[in-house]
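Worked example 2:
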Amino acid sequence: MGRNSNASSRYQRINEIFNLRKGRNALVTTRELVNILGVSTRQLRTDMDQMKLMGAPLEYDAKDRGWRYTHPFDISEPIPLSVEDIMQLRLAVATLAQFNQVPGFENLSGIFEKIRKSVRRWLDREATTKAIYFDPLPNYEGARNLPFFLRAIEETREVQFEYRPFLASQSRSCRIDPYFLRQHHQGWYLGGFSHDPNELFIRTYPLERVVGEPVFTGTFFNRPENFRPAEYWKYIVGINRPPDKGIEKVVLEFNYLHGRYFLSKPFYEPFIILEESAEKLTVEMELIIDIELTRKILALGSDVKVIAPESLRASIKKFLEDALAHYYT
C-alpha cells in the first residue's frame, strides 16, 4: 500500500503542499504529487475531485500538467458524525447564538459564524428553515463585567466594586475573593468570600447591581481547599445560600396535574416520592429553606400544599394571608 493511504491524511497533506507553494512555485505537477503522496495517478485524480467538492480552490494547468491553489484555503479535518451528532451540533450552535447580542459577548459573533460554516458541511442542504427558537434574552447589563471577573477567578485576584441592592438608596463598597460565576434565571452571579466585617462568609452578588468599574486590589491565597462551587448550592433552590440556616426535610403534596409537571421538570433534585396516586403526588426533599423556595411554592397556589416542616407551612400561610388582604381593602 502507498505511504499515505488514509484519505483524510492525504487531503490534509495536499492542502499543506498547495498552501506552502506560492507565486511562481504555486504549481505542483502531477508527478510530484504522486511521488509525495505515494499514490497512483488515478487515485490522485479521485482525491482532487473530492477536494474540489470540499471547496478547495484547485486549478489544473494542462500545459504544465500540474495543479495550483488560486487562493489560500483552510481544510477542516473530516469528522465522522451520526445523525444524532449533527442534530446536537445544530442545537448547540443555536443555543450559543442566543447570547450574541448580550453585552460582554459581542465578540462571539465571528466565532458563531465559523461554527456555522464548519457544521454546514454535515447538514442537510435543504434544512435551511429556522426550526429552533428561544425565549428572548433580556438586555442584561451585568454581562459586561463577565470577562473581568472570570480573569479575577482564574488569577486568584481579590476584587473591589460598588454594589447597590434594590432597596438601598446608595451603593456600598464590597471587597471579595471571587470563587465562581454562575448563570441563573437569565442573570449572572459572582460568588466568593466577602471581607465585610458583618459577613465574613461566602455569598453571591448579582452582576447587574455592580455599579461602575470593578478593580483588582490584590491576590488571595487562602481559598478553602475543600470548597466546591457545586456543593455551595447543593441544598438550595435559589442562588444565595443562607449562612445561618440548616438543611431540613421539606415535604410537598401536589395535585395530580401539577404532580405530572413536577415529575417532568422538577424545580429541585434529588427528591424522594413518598406517595403517588391518581389524586396526588407527595415528595420529600432535603433543602435549606430560602426565599426562592418560598416563591416557587407560592407561584403554584392551590396546586401544592406544604406538609413539612411546620415553619415553612406557617411562612406560606402568612404570605397567602397578606396577599388575600389586598383584596379586602
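The radius of gyration is 30 Å. The chain has ten helices and twelve strands.
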